[in-house]
Amino acid sequence: MAAGAELLPDGRARYARRAFDPLAAGGAITPMDWRTATITPKGIDLVRLHVARFGSDPANEIMVSRLGQIASGQLEASEYDLRFYTHELRELERYRALGIPDTVNADRDVWNNAHTATLADYGLSDRDSGGDYTLYHPITWE
């Protein structure tokens, strides 16, 4: 079991630090490692498909653009890029396991359960100890 998969007494994932329903998260929490990812055009298309369901979001658009630059060799992948890429792909898998069509933006509880379980898969939280987002490169906030 991934370190993040451990549940605290209040129902939050240990590292994700968010309350969620692990039985409504699109599958069991599975230990995964974002460090081993290879960013591919097919994977980028899936990430783009998944984040489109949430509507226009400048941070997501910047991160997807960065993925394209990485795949074309214009940019070296950072930890943020690899975490974003693997997180969004795994979250898409969870949505599909829940039967949510790729173009549907489900309610906040569905997102929270899938998002938090995906963070737990990778032993991550939304923010690091310094308060920075773990999935978004700092350039997205400039």
Protein described:
The chain has helices at residues 41-52, 58-71, 79-97, 108-121. It is mostly helical and 142 residues long. The protein has one domain.
Task: Please provide a brief summary of the model.
Helix content is 42%, strand content 0%. It contains four helices and no strands.
State the main characteristics.
single chain, 142 residues, mainly alpha, 0% strand, globular
- The radius of gyration is 14 Å
Low-confidence stretches: none
Beta-strand segment tally? 0
**Percent in helix:** 40-55%
**Class by helix and strand content?**
mainly alpha
- How many domains comprise the coordinates? 1
Distance from first to last alpha carbon: 36 Å
Strand content: under 5%
- Give helix and strand order, one letter per element, not per position: HHHH
Mean pLDDT over the residues: 90
Report the total helices: 4
Biggest pleated sheet: none
Shape: globular
How would the blueprint of this fold be written?
Layout: H1 41-52, H2 58-71, H3 79-97, H4 108-121
